[in-house]
Amino acid sequence: MHTFQPYPIDLIEFDPFTKIGKEWMLITASAEDKINAMTASWGGVGVLWGKNTAFIFVRDSRYTKELIDQSDHFSLTFFDSSYKSALKYFGMVTGRREDKIKTAKMNVNYFEDIPFIDEGNFVICCRKMSATPILPEQFLDSEIQEKWYADGDLHTMYVGEIIQILAR
To answer: d(Cα 127, Cα 131) in Å, to the nearest integer?
Structure first.
């Protein structure tokens, strides 16, 4: 296991357009004795309800969503570019049928009881604050449903309070 240190939030130089949108992240959650991670390229960070927060979007069909719904926490793990093919794998295969973390030859580490992927170099640990289903009647742009949800597999937006940032 790697050694991760707490990283002060006020020292972060974090471009969410690159880190999330282009380099991607793994969302990791656990419930009971199950752990899963999924690739995400939608989300962000900011301030909401007087707290430093991260927000993510998870499709209803994803196994990780079931675990987030059953848990009070989730993590976001960021990697260097050498892990891009592993991140593609995490986005294509479901954790319902196989242990993706083991198959990808990665390991789970923990901050308190919050799981994250040990091979990352930067981790945001969150306490779940809200879960908001994204519904078609909320779309103000008529192209959103056709382009992103033609199959009806909608997202839930989760907002989490950032309780710890870790760096390797």
So the answer is: 12
